[in-house]
Design goal:
Blueprint (H helix, E strand, L loop, with lengths): L2 H8 L13 H19 L10 E8 L2 E7 L16 E6 L2 E3 L5 H13 L3 H15 L4 E4 L2 E4 L3 H10 L2 E2 L2 E2 H21 L10 H4 L1
Helix pairs in contact: 1-4, 2-6, 4-5
């Protein structure tokens, strides 16, 4: 796919306004965010520390993204997050150990920079910004799910292939899951959902 064609599929053709009364798109973002938060809160959890009940939110080609409840913040005494959960990657039903640190995420961009793959970096940047504002979340029934543009995923898959042993599509959905987890955390702790705390900051 030509660069201009790819970038047109990623273009953000509406204002990302933080003034709900001025932007129907901002209202849509808040609606999707609240729906995702409500869904996650409704999932069951295992109250014994170190054990989880997992809920699958995405799967493709043997890979899946699942949230386990409860995460470590559930057991805190101070600023306890009673809805804490942990995103995990599974392959053929078995959990994959994957470095989820920001340093590991940044390493992907650094590797592409060293190879002068500017188009890859630009595409990743566009996808992260779009995910921050839930632009690529589509409704299926009564749920919303992340569905990045197929053209962008195909381009990245051909350019990158695997990142630390997992397909780049799985990596993108994992990043989205981390952002989802953060939205739930900040909602639970009482932060204003109209601010950029949580998922937008993560992305």
């Amino acid at each position: 796919m030509e660069k201009d064609t790819l970038l047109r599929t990623l273009a953000i053709n509406h204002p990302l306004s933080y003034q709900p009364h001025k932007s129907q798109y901002r209202q849509r973002q808040l609606q999707i965010k609240q729906s995702l938060v409500n869904e996650a809160i409704s999932w069951p959890g295992e109250k014994e520390e170190g054990k989880y009940i997992f809920t699958k939110v995405w799967e493709s080609d043997g890979y899946s993204i699942q949230f386990g409840k409860y995460g470590k913040e559930y057991y805190r005494e101070h600023r306890r997050n009673v809805n804490d959960m942990v995103p995990r990657i599974f392959r053929d039903g078995s959990e994959i150990v994957f470095d989820a640190s920001f340093r590991a995420v940044f390493r992907l961009v650094e590797e592409q920079s060293r190879c002068n793959n500017d188009d890859v970096i630009l595409t990743l940047a566009c996808l992260f910004v779009r995910d921050a504002f839930l632009i690529d979340h589509k409704q299926t029934g009564d749920k919303f799910r992340y569905a990045p543009p197929a053209e962008a995923v195909s381009f990245l898959q051909s350019a990158i292939g695997l990142h630390y042993g997992i397909p780049v599509e799985v990596f993108l959905h994992y990043i989205d899951a981390i952002a989802w987890q953060e939205d739930v955390k900040y909602y639970t702790l009482g932060y204003n959902q109209k601010k950029t705390s949580g998922g937008p900051t993560t992305c």
